Amino acid sequence: MSQEEKIKPELECESFRENLATAEESGKRKWVFPRKTHGKYTTYRNIVSAILLILLFVIPFIKTSKGNPLFQFDFLNRQFYLFGAYFSPSDFYLFSIGFVTTIVFIILFTVVYGRIFCGWICPQTIFMEHVFRKIEYLIEGDRNKQIRLDKQDWDSEKIRKRLLKWSIFALISFIFSNILFSYIFGIDEMIKMIKEGPANNVGLFVALIIFSALFYLVFAWFREQVCSFVCPYGRLQGVLIDKDTINITYDFIRGEGEKGRSKWKKNEDRKLAGKGDCIDCQQCVVVCPAGIDIRNGSQLECINCTACIDACDEVMTKVGLPTGLIRYASENMIEKRTTFKFNARVIAYTLILFILIAVCTSLLFVRSSVESKFLKVVGTQFTIQDKNIVDEYQFSFINKTSEIQNLNIKIISPKSAEIELVGYGNKITIKPKELLKGTAVIKIPEADLSKTKQEVVIGVFDNKGAKIDEYKTNFIGPTKELF
User: Fold this and answer.
1) Beta-bridge partners for 426
2) Which residues contact 472 (CB under 8 A, 6 or more apart)?
3) In what helix (H) or strand (E) does residue 182 lie, and over which residues does it extend?
4) Distance CA 338, CA 185 (A)
5) CB 393 within 8 A of CB 387
6) Where are the beta strands (DSSP E) in 195-254?
7) pLDDT tens across 375-392, in order?
8) What is the DSSP code string of 279-307?
9) Is 329 within 8 Å of 241 (Cβ atoms)?
């Protein structure tokens, strides 16, 4: 029997899957008190989280040269800004395409690279592990002190520390809520409403309190259970990953050896004794913010936060064993004793990811700055005036920019056709974000109208003659017998 076959049955017992890591057998909540970690991955994650948090606070204050916010999602007034570009409800199809692209991106990314997003970029992880958890360490201490404080009676020390922690959590929740609301209303409007006070903005104040309470509830009480019970991405993990997916993985072949894991004994030749490199120190368990044992294999609760890697590497270094017992690897890499390579599958999926990003990004910036429509007025008939066939249309123009647009409207095809916007002529001025509607008259000489239903192409040009947009509509004229 091979080494893998000896180890597999032990790992495939999977009795751990019958119970939640955050619940007792009785169903009572089991609080997780992870130990503070140190190591290269912890340092990298601290840097990434610091950058993301700084960007979160700074971006609302950044404006383009035209005065547009860099990002704003004003759902109430249906105004959106992405990278300073204005998007109206008429651009909703772009968001639909973006949503579908995002879903495909998540699926492909997860199949190849696992849950890197969860451990490094997800707002839930950033807020929980790099804001609220750090405050908890400062006030209550590391794992052992937190456990002792949790078990002790409600004396003056416990009341003081818990009230201080909860008060700071509530304050941070309120601050974050204001920042997140600034992405909806805009930072200038938020500052204005704050200065006016709650009495003049009751709706906003109530919404802030409700959102702050939810924010506080998630990070002060619900915590890691969001990833297990609420987040759909966590639920999809088990479906999306396969044996070639890169995850944080325990090297069970090296860790278990022939006789399994065992405690460390000084001056012992573990290889000769048939023991694995895992000394069963439980440090990978006590640092896990989800409360799981990574040695049990891939699990729903794991968010790939790398805490177990740093904890294990620290122990391996102390006992003089090679690091990497827990590392980024796929199941096949562990079983076949190979290293990560950009094979055809990984390269193909990665190229598709880049193509999706490129396509979605290009759609955001190749759209026209003005959207035009010319629709035949329902219930109207053509008229004949001075050997011209005349038809009426309902026009609409949407200025998708934050600048005044001076437009010149012309017929591109057929060349002999003419258009006039009633009350405007051929030139109009549209204010920023304005929707302009009215009636247009199109004339085509009888001699040039070769068929009853003629396609007309209408062009929208700027002052310099550059085409901004065009619209194709049908011109309905008389049958040949009426000429």
Assistant:
1) none
2) 455, 456, 457, 458
3) helix 156-185
4) 52
5) no
6) 247-250
7) 988 878 888 888 889 999
8) ----HHHHT-TT---GGG-S-TT----SH
9) no
Place of tokens 């993990």: 237
Element (H, E) at 44: helix 40-58
- Kindly state the helix (H) or strand (E) to which residue 49 belongs, with its residue range: helix 40-58
The helices-and-strands tally (H runs, E runs) of the chain is 17, 14
Q: For residue 259, give the DSSP letter.
A: T
Burial of 97: CB neighbours in 10 Å, binned 0-12, 13-18, 19+:
middle
**What's the whole-model pTM score?**
0.82
CB 208 within 8 A of CB 97: no
- Residue ranges in 247-392 assigned as alpha helix (H): 252-256, 283-286, 307-319, 331-336, 344-365
Rg, C-alpha atoms of the chain:
32
3-state helix, strand, coil in the chain (%, to 5): 50, 20, 35
Rounded-to-integer distance, Cα 367 and Cα 369, Å? 7
Report the DSSP beta bridge partners of residue 326. 250
Instruction: Render pLDDT for 17-52 as a digit per residue (tens, 0 to 9).
Output: 566 777 777 778 889 999 999 999 999 999 999 999
